[in-house]
Task: structure prediction
Amino acid sequence: MGFRLSKIYTRTGDTGETGLGDGRRVPKDHPRVEAIGEVDTLNSQLGLLLAGLVDEARRVPALNEVIEVLVPCQHRLFDLGGELAMPTYKALNSAEVERLEAAIDVWNEELGPLENFILPGGSTLIAQAHICRSLARSAERRCQHLNA
Result:
């Protein structure tokens, strides 16, 4: 399944190109590389959110439900990066989308109808969640660009 890097630098990108997992060379600003980078950024920020949630869950155990939903998301984002780097590799399936939609449906029922938009902030964790939300939307746009 692709190439395993034994070191964190390769010096093969010094001329403005980078390698995909299937061995192809593309410009570093190629839409696929941009999508990989955006998904990676989202995954990193989600990791930061999860670290904060784990700390806060010691005080507010109900947050464990959110953690249980988000931890698999982080793994699937890693898988998505693999799919983007190796277009013939398929790791994601509709079951993950259905799992997320089910959790969102439960939370939406608990919240009731949205009456207004919420500004990012209020606490560090809420602000971090908004960063993840906005990065997810950006990553989605970058990935969709590949299908255009």
User: Anything to note?
Assistant: Helices lie at 31-57, 63-85, 94-111, 124-147. The domain at 31-147 is CATH 1.20.1200.10 (Hypothetical Protein Ta1238; Chain: A;). DSSP finds four helices and two strands in the chain. The chain has one domain: 31-147.
